[in-house]
Amino acid sequence: MRKLLAAALCLAATATGCGATVESAKDPESSAVTLTNCGRTVTYDKIPERVVTNDVGITELMFALGLEDRMAGFAMPDDKGDLRRVPWKDGYDKVPWLSKDQLTKENVLDARADLVFAGWNYGFREDGGFTPDALKKLGIPSYILTESCRNGRTDSSRGIMPPLEALYTDLTNLGKLFGVEKRAAALIARFKKQIADVRAKAPKGADRPSVFLYDSGQDAPFTSGRYAAPEQIITEAGGVNIMHDVADSWTTAGWESVVERDPDVIVICDYGDVSAEQKKKFLLSYPPLRSVSAIRHRRIVALDYADLVESPRNPSAIARLGAYLRTR
């Protein structure tokens, strides 16, 4: 499976990830760049040369654009799957792994970072004071992952646009910031072509299976609303996210809502100390779920964490889930 993943991703990745020549990044002494990030206009005075990232999806966005030479390090837990067979292995080999936890101010200062690329609940957090505003006081600019933008519905709800639009927005913004617009545009075009090919084969109308994304949790499931990547991964693959009405990205739901909505398929997010097989065993043995169609027919499939957060792996995840839904 991981060899297939690497091959599929190589087709969708930038030339950098697969060994071909790409355009040169912008001179760091070039003029300032102004972007819209999470609804705010942000001006960067210079092209960053020592970027620090938090988590696997964000880190691989930089790698997919061939920007590892602009990075001073990344932070992520070591429970995010096998990183040795992704198209961006060279990036992981080259860029320092600063922390196996979330970023801290100390990590950023020690790395002499001139940009922090993270997201709300992907590094940025109020507890501990690791926020864009706190970094700004230290003279360090930030870029916030668009999937994680707070939407104002509550203090913590996230998501301001469809997930794939968020992915394309970030690639476009990063392309502009680092002077690799053509590289970003080519990557987006490849992704759109790959996804369109899956969409063309996907079930239609009433044949579209309902799908529940299970991340973790036993007392209450942690899942995906309509602003996290699984929403469009499921939709483009040919399914219907049963939590589409939840105006948030990653959030907690109730088991009663899962039972009521009776999903045909369950997708497990594979990461952490609890394996996908252990999660599957729990779901199959949890009494309140015994009447759910996906449980009765054992239609449960796992995708990696990095497939299911905003990342350059999303198109490959759509292709693999689409193949599963067509053969269920």
Description:
The protein folds into 2 domains: 2-191, Nitrogenase molybdenum iron protein domain (Rossmann fold, 3-Layer(aba) Sandwich); 204-327, 3-Layer(aba) Sandwich (Rossmann fold). Helix content is 39%, strand content 17%. It has helices at residues 2-12, 15-18, 56-64, 89-94, 105-110, 132-137, 163-178, 181-201, 229-237, 255-261, 276-285, 293-296, 305-308, 314-327, and strands at 33-37, 40-44, 51-54, 71-75, 97-99, 115-120, 123-124, 142-144, 210-214, 222-224, 240-241, 250-252, 265-270, 300-304. The protein is of the alpha/beta class. The two termini are 18 Å apart. Strands 3, 4, 5, 6, 7 and 8 form a 6-stranded parallel sheet that branches. The protein has a 4-stranded parallel sheet with strand order 11-9-13-14, sandwiched between helices.
Which short descriptors sum up this protein?
14 strands; globular; disordered N terminus; 2 domains; 328 residues; alpha/beta; four-stranded parallel β-sheet; Rossmann fold; single chain
